[in-house]
Amino acid sequence: MHSSRDVLASLADLKARQVTWLPHPALLGFLATTSSRDSFPAVGVARLERLLPGDTPTDVEVHLRGRLPRLPLCGESVAVSISRYDRFTGFQIKSGAVRGMDELGEIFEQAGDSLVVRGRRTYTTHHGPYELQFFERVPFEEMLGTIGNVDHGVLATGLDANVSPRLVFHHELQGQVLTTYHGDGVAMKTFRNLSVNPRAAMLLFDFPTLAGWTLFGRCEEVPREENPRATEEIDRGFRALGFGRPNRIFRHRTERVEPLGIASDGP
Questions:
Q1: Where is 83: in which H helix or E strand?
Q2: Rounded Cα–Cα distance for residues 101 and 73 (Å)
Q3: Domain residues for 66?
Q4: Cβ neighbourhood burial of 139 (10 Å; 0-12, 13-18, 19+)
Q5: Spatial distance between the Cα atoms of 184 and 90, rounded to a whole number of angstroms
Q6: In a domain, 110, yes or no
Q7: pLDDT tens readout for residues 114-133
Q8: Considering the domain boundaries, does residue 265 fall inside one?
Q9: Is residue 266 part of a domain?
Q10: How far apart are the C-alpha atoms of 124 and 241, rounded to whole Å?
Q11: How many domains does the chain have?
């Protein structure tokens, strides 16, 4: 059992070295959501080996070293987030939804620690809240040129599974509850998922080792005036990045903590 105080201490160390290219201290986390009410998405990280074009112009195969956090159920999909953090660019690649358990091969292929996710839709994501754009047709060559030498991806499995990078400019203990805050400028898929299911997972980890934490809890929009300290830090961070004030402030209150690392069969 991991205490919130232990995690808080490790996050202070992570904040000092995780995203040193930013002009304001922050953590870069990943908020994973699902539209399935009262449930959490299954999440994990894996080493990225390569991307290959699929059978159609919108398909892409994501080859990873690691394992799915769990098998997708009927109606569920797999999302893989791959980002070039220092350039604020990246992609979220999503499989189709499982139509039947005998057709899982259309979604992914797992052989030991070798994982292939068969993407059907690709979205571009820019971490800046006012530079967020989504497309369903991204040229494969553009993807390769953008990703460069990125060596890992963040995975989520669930109904309408979604993984979104979030700059965490403020975190604290409220009693014994580890709480993180982030700002948002637009209402996209994450916001729509949270509107029907506020249970979400926040992943915070060291990029070279992929070791860190998954914080499972409720993520909800909160009034600016009732969270002045967090709001002030978020506004400072947005200004330092050249963005305007975020339209919304979100608070994620941790209910359960689990260590994060590459899910593997071992040597």
A1: strand 77-84
A2: 7
A3: 4-260
A4: exposed
A5: 17
A6: yes
A7: 999 999 998 887 544 434 44
A8: no
A9: no
A10: 20
A11: 1
